[in-house]
Amino acid sequence: MDELSLISYIEKNSRENLKFNGSMIIKSIGDDTAIFRDKKNILITSDTLTENTHFRTDYYSFSQVGAKSLLANISDIASMGGTPRFFILSLLVPDYLTEANIKETIDGIIKTAKIDKISLIGGNVSKAGEFSISITLLGDCTDRQMAILRYSAECDDLIFVSGALGNAWLSYYIMENKELIKEHIEKFVINDIDNVLGINKAYKTSDTSKTSNVSGNSNNSKTPNISETSNISKASNVSKTSNTSKRTKNRIIKFIENYAKKNLIHPSRVKLGKILAKNKIANSMTDISDGLYKDINNLLSSKDKNSSALIIADNIPLSNEFKSIVKILNLKDTDILNNVISFGEDYELLWSIRRSDENKLLEIAKKERIKISKIGSIINGKTDHYTDFRAGKRVNFIYKNKSFAIRPITFKHISNNL
After folding, report:
1. Across-strand partners of 159?
2. What is the CA radius of gyration of the chain?
3. Where is average pLDDT lowest: 127-141, 182-196, 242-256, 316-330?
4. DSSP character at residue 148
5. Which of 159, 157, 172 has the alpha carbon at shortest distance from 343?
6. 3-state SS string for 78-99
7. Of 74, 91, 167, 243, which residue is least crowded by CB atoms under 10 Å?
C-alpha cells in the first residue's frame, strides 16, 4: 500500500466516522496544519507505541494495536477530568506489514475514537524499519470542569481507584506461558473432576480384563451379579470422567484465552474523570500506566514532604474472572499482589478525596453505576509506624495487617514458572 493510498484511506475513514466537534474545526486533514477555535482550557498529550516494546503482534490483533495507541492518550485526558476532542496520527510503517494489517490498525483507531467522539484532524505517514504509532491528543475542560492536577493530595485524604487492577498483568502472563498453562489445566481438571464426581482413583485404573469379562457377560441372558454390575459402573465412570475432563479442559482453556485477548485493551474512563472534575471532588488524580507502585507517587503533595500513602493491598479490586483464573493456575497470593501492584498497563484512574466527601462520591458512583474502590489514605509519614522516611519511602503497602514489600517487575519478568 503506497503512502498516498494510505492517506486517502485514513482521510475517507475519518470523515465518514468521526464527524464530531464540527463547530470548532476550521481546517483539518489536507493542509499543512489543522486549525480549530476554542475558548476553553486546552489539554494536550502525546504518546508513542512501538512494536516489541509496547506491543507484540503475536499477542495483539492489529485492531487492538490501533485501539491501544489511542486509549493510552485518552487515559491522560481522562485523568485530568477533561474531554478529548481532536487527535493527530503519525504512522511509521515497515515493509513487512500487509495492506490488510495497516487497514485493520486504522480501523481500530477510528472505532476507538468514535466511542468518545474524537475527531482526527491530521498527521503523518512514513516508512520505517519497525512498526510505530504516535498520537497527539487535544482535549479541553471548562471552568466548571476544572482540570484535576497531580501532586496535590492532602493529609487524611482517602485514596480511590476505578475498575479492577491486574487484568493487564494476567493477560500478559497468560500469553507468555500458554504451554505451561495448558499442562497445568490438565492436572487441575483431573483433580477437580475427582472432587466433583467423587470418583476414586482406583476407578481410573480398573483392570481392563474385568471390563472385558463384563462386556462378555452382557451378551448372554443372565442378569449380571453385584460384582459384575460394580465393574460396569466403574468402566462407565472412567469413560465419562475422561470425556468430561476433556470438555472441561477445553472450556477452561477457551475461557482463559478469551480473558487474555479481551483484557489486553483497557476501557476508557473519560466519563468518570469528567464526573470527578464537574463535582470538584478529587484533590489529585492520575492514571495507572506504570503500575500502582509508581503511579501512587503522582498523588503525593509536592509541598508537604511529610505526606505518605498507605495502601491496603487487601482492598485492591480484582475482577471475578481474574480471581477464577489465578485459582485455577494455583498462583501464590503474594506473588499475584506484587505483580498487580507493580506491572501497570491498567490505565484505571487513581485519585484522592477529602474524607468528608466519601459519601458524596459513593452516591455518585452508585447513581452512575461506576465501579470504584477505596484502597488507602494519605498519612503523615513522620508519625505513622508503617512509614520508613529515613529510607525515603513515601508509599507503604499493607497486606493482612503486615507491611508488604513490593518487588517491581517489568515485561521481561512475567515468564515465571507455574
Report:
1. 352, 376
2. 27
3. 182-196
4. P
5. 172
6. HCCCCEEEEEEEEEEECCCCCH
7. 243
What does the alpha-carbon distance between residue 350 and residue 371 come to, in Å, rounded to a whole number? 12
Would you say 297 and 311 are in contact if contact means Cβ atoms under 8 Å apart?
Answer: no
Question: What would the pLDDT profile of 356-392 be if each residue is shown by its tens digit?
Answer: 999 999 999 999 999 999 999 999 877 665 555 445 5
Per CATH, 1-145 and 148-181+261-418 having the same topology is answered no
- Domain boundaries, given as residue ranges, for the chain: 1-145, 148-181+261-418, 182-260
Handedness of CA 307, 313, 315, 320 (dihedral sign): positive
Contact criterion met (CB below 8 Å) for 195 and 389:
no
| DSSP H stretches of helix in 264-332 | 270-278, 292-295, 320-328
22-31, 141-150, 171-180, 224-233 — which is least confidently predicted? Answer: 224-233
Strands 284-287, 349-353: pairing is antiparallel
Per-residue pLDDT, 242: 63
Indicate whether 329 pLDDT > 50. Answer: yes
Question: Residue 99: what residue type?
Answer: E
Instruction: Name every residue whose Cβ is closer than 8 Å to that of residue 184 and which is 6 or more positions away in sequence.
Output: 328, 329, 330, 418
Q: Is 218 exposed, middle or buried (0-12, 13-18, 19+ CB in 10 A)?
A: exposed
Residues 266-282: tens digit of each pLDDT: 999 999 999 999 999 99
Q: Where are the alpha helices (DSSP H) in 146-177?
A: 167-176
Hey, which of 126-130, 349-353, 399-403 has the most confident mean pLDDT? 349-353
Distance of CA 6 to the CA centre of its chain: 31
Task: Assign domain 1-145 to its CATH architecture.
Answer: 2-Layer Sandwich (3.30)
Highest mean pLDDT among 97-106, 173-182, 214-223: 97-106
Q: Which three cell numbers stand for residue 61?
A: 490483533
* Reported pTM: 0.80
Query: Which residues share a beta bridge with 67?
Result: none
Which residue type sits at 89? L
- In DSSP terms, 310 is beta-bridged to 377, 396
Cα angle at 72 between 315 and 405, to 5 degrees?
A: 35
The fold of the 148-181+261-418 domain, in CATH, is Phosphoribosyl-aminoimidazole Synthetase; Chain A, domain 2 (3.90.650)
Q: Is the pLDDT assigned to residue 158 strictly greater than 70? A: yes
Cell numbers 516508512: residue? 127
The C-alpha atoms of residue 371 and residue 165 are separated, in whole angstroms, by 12
Q: List CB contacts of 85: < 8 A, sequence separation 6 or more.
A: 20, 21, 24, 36, 118, 119, 138, 139, 140
